[in-house]
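Tip: read the tokens left to right.
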């Protein structure tokens, strides 16, 4: 409903989201490894400036891929931490009714 500012947290959904992100990170890494393997086979014959330029591109690629992976793992960890915080708050709130 428009203007409805309620937030609903489902612990199972949070855990599933974190697991989905972890799975996606693994699948992404597997695909990147396949692509990179194919590129490396072709690049092995390069020499001189082409080889040096490729090595520079490879370093940049690896740095960016590593950053993406670490960001995905960080997001997953933060979702799990948020879930734990919601549980703690929920338990405290339940205690007020006892």
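Filled-in amino acids:
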């Amino acid at each position: 409903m428009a203007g409805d500012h309620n937030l609903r947290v489902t612990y199972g959904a949070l855990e599933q989201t974190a697991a989905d992100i972890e799975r996606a990170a693994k699948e992404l890494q597997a695909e990147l490894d396949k692509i990179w393997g194919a590129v490396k086979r072709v690049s092995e014959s390069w020499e001189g400036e082409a080889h040096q330029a490729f090595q520079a591109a490879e370093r940049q690629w690896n740095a960016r891929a590593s950053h993406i992976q670490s960001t995905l793992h960080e997001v997953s960890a933060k979702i799990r931490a948020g879930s734990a915080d919601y549980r703690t708050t929920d338990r405290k709130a339940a205690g007020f009714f006892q």
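Residues 11 and 87 are 8 Å apart (CA to CA). The mean pLDDT is 91.
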